């Protein structure tokens, strides 16, 4: 059925539980779910990664293509991020033209990667103004148990870190069956991540499960990276209708470095 | 998760009647030969009886049936289900019960007389009710509230488990659900469609009741679970 909204009862219960600082799975409101990363999920992709975060599972893949640059950036390569919300991932996803979530997810990830400057797009140029590499990042949720954007950000960064250029044939075409040793021109120290803060009543919470995500009244997604020991917010997008108060945004911004380091502590193990 | 348990459980377990049960996947041959009859969840193809669903195959005399372990809720007449109101129309309520097709509760089935203009005060969009399936027609399900314990649910919360696990949660003659109710002091209603309503005196006992039910729903292949739950309650 198309209606997968939360019941009034559960929403009230979650509000009173959050007021008491409790969650059904025993975590604190601002505790993150543990995650694990697996590489080499797809052998035809130039780079791929699978992230399991709680029951949320997501696969990201990177494909490389030779194309023409956009007219307004002849000296830069192209980056395309797309997502396909498969109906197997959640009862909320339906077959058909992409809906709001399916458009929002890749855009959030695209902005996070692009604005952090993680990929040095200028190094993707083959012939300026004529031929450049196009990096295509594809996101496939396998199971959606909340916090899809945050899990996708980890998966996409892992897939990009894992990606290599395909070999070029003598006629300049790509030989997709042969991989070179050359990695993408990534800025080593820049690792962007997104954090989505959800709000229900007066409570902020992170890393929701599906029912908590269904119950939330407002959310804000922030893309953050670290440069020379300083944290940078690269992107920001607010969703849903209820506004955030100024104190809440200040609290979120204060929390971000701490949460970023927490994720990076686990993530660094997989990046080596 | 289920696959792991299968390995641990060494594939074969015995049902209470002493019949062998084992896990089958759709298309798997359960038995060969003309001596057997396919029951629910199984079908005959040539010489073989093969499984239609993922579940536990059971041979009872000549009858082969598969007790499903996954899949959507298939509504049956007389089932008590829990649903969520998705629309209020001029002559009743549309209810989401997690089954294919929509369920309809006519205004005449409400336990007391209601004026058309006070319908949404009794049951508004997003409200939860427990109801009995009165009839199943080609296009949908008709519900009724006439019966003991049926009606709007107030307080507590709702969560979902797989509908095929509901018999496990209830246990033999309600032994499991009675145990969980006793140990947590919560009021619990389990709909046949896998929606569970829990209402307790305080948050902690409600959270515990949910944990216990999800624990039982996870352990599909273990016999004598009621005894194990006694131990679980002592540990938690």
The helix/strand class of chain A is: alpha+beta
**Straight-line distance between termini of chain B:** 22 Å
Task: Identify the CATH class of the largest domain in chain B.
Answer: Alpha Beta
H/I helix tally of chain B: 6
Q: Which percent band covers the strand fraction of chain A? A: 25-35%
Biggest sheet architecture of chain B:
5 strands, mixed
Kindly report the oligomeric state of this protein.
heterodimer
Helix-strand category of chain B: alpha+beta
Do you know the CATH architecture of chain A?
Answer: 2-Layer Sandwich
Spatial order of the strands forming the largest sheet of chain B: 1-2-7-8-4
Number of strands of chain A: 12
CATH topology of the largest domain in chain B: Ribosomal Protein S8, Chain: A, domain 1
Along the chain, the helix and strand elements of chain A come as HEEEEHEEHEEEEHEEH
Biggest sheet of chain A, open or closed, and with what strands and sense? 6 strands, mixed
What is the number of domains of chain A? 1
Describe the structure.
The complex is a heterodimer of chains A (272) and B (236). Chain A is of the alpha+beta class and 272 residues long. Helices cover 28% and strands 34% of the residues of chain A. Chain A has a single domain (8-271), classed as 2-Layer Sandwich (Ribosomal Protein S5, domain 2), CATH 3.30.230. Chain A contains five helices and twelve strands. The model of chain A has no long low-confidence stretch (mean pLDDT 89). Chain B contains six helices and 17 strands. The two termini of chain B are 22 Å apart. A five-stranded mixed sheet of chain B has the order 1-2-7-8-4, with no helix packed on it. In chain B, strands 9-10-11-13-12 form a five-stranded mixed beta barrel. Chain B has three domains: 2-68, OB fold (Dihydrolipoamide Acetyltransferase, E2P), CATH 2.40.50.100; 80-152, Nucleic acid-binding proteins (OB fold (Dihydrolipoamide Acetyltransferase, E2P)); 157-235, K Homology domain, type 1 (Ribosomal Protein S8, Chain: A, domain 1), CATH 3.30.1370.10. The longest helix of chain B is centred in the C-terminal third of the chain and has 16 residues, at 203-218. Helices cover 23% and strands 35% of the residues of chain B. The radius of gyration of chain B is 20 Å and the shape is flat. The chains are: A alpha+beta (272), B alpha+beta (236). The A-B interface holds A 1, 3, 5-14, 16-17, 20, 22, 24, 211 and B 84, 86, 96, 98, 102, 124, 126-128, 153-159, 197, 203, 206-207, 210.
């Amino acid at each position: 059925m198309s209606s997968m909204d939360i019941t009034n009862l559960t929403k009230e219960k979650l509000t009173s539980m959050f007021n008491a600082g409790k969650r059904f799975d025993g975590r604190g409101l601002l505790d993150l779910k543990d995650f694990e990363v697996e590489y080499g999920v797809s052998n035809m992709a130039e780079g791929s990664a699978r992230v399991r975060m709680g029951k949320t599972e997501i696969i990201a893949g990177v494909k490389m293509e030779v194309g023409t640059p956009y007219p307004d950036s002849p000296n830069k390569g192209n980056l395309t991020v797309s997502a396909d919300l498969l109906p197997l991932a959640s009862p909320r996803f339906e077959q058909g033209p992409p809906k709001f979530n399916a458009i929002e997810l890749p855009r959030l990830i695209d902005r996070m990667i692009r604005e952090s400057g993680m990929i040095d797009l200028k190094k993707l140029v083959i012939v300026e103004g004529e031929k450049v590499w196009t990096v295509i990042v594809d996101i496939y949720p396998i199971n959606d148990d909340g916090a899809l954007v945050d899990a996708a950000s980890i998966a996409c960064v892992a897939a990009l870190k894992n990606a290599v250029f395909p070999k070029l044939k003598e006629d300049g075409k790509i030989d997709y069956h042969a991989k070179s040793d050359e990695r993408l021109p990534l800025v080593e120290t820049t690792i962007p991540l997104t954090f989505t803060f959800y709000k229900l009543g007066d409570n902020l919470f992170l890393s929701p499960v599906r029912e908590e995500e269904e119950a939330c009244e407002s959310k804000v997604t922030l893309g953050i990276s670290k440069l020379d020991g300083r944290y940078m917010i690269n992107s920001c997008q607010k969703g849903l209708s209820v506004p955030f108060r100024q104190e809440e945004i200040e609290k979120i911004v204060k929390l971000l470095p701490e949460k970023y380091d927490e994720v990076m502590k686990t993530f660094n193990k997989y990046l080596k | 998760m289920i696959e792991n348990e299968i390995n641990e459980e060494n594939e074969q377990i015995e049902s209470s009647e002493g019949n062998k049960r084992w896990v089958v996947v759709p298309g798997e041959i359960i038995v060969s030969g003309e001596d057997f009859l396919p029951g629910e969840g199984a079908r005959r193809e040539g010489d073989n009886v093969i499984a239609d669903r993922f579940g536990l195959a059971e041979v009872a005399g000549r009858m082969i049936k598969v007790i499903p372990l996954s899949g959507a809720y298939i509504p049956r007449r007389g089932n008590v289900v829990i649903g969520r109101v998705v629309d209020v129309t001029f002559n009743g309520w549309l209810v989401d019960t997690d089954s294919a097709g929509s369920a309809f509760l006519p205004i005449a089935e409400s336990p007391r007389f209601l004026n058309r203009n006070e319908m949404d005060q009794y049951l508004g969009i997003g409200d939860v009710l427990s109801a009995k399936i009165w009839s199943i027609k080609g296009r949908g399900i008709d519900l009724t509230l006439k019966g003991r314990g049926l009606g709007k649910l107030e307080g507590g919360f709702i969560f979902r488990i797989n509908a095929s696990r509901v018999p496990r949660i209830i246990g033999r003659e309600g032994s499991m659900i009675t145990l969980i109710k006793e140990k947590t002091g919560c009021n619990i209603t389990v709909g046949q469609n896998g929606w569970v309503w829990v209402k307790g005196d305080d948050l902690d006992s409600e959270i515990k009741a949910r944990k216990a039910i999800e624990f039982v729903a996870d352990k599909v292949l273990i016999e004598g679970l009621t005894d194990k739950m006694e131990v679980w309650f002592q540990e938690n």
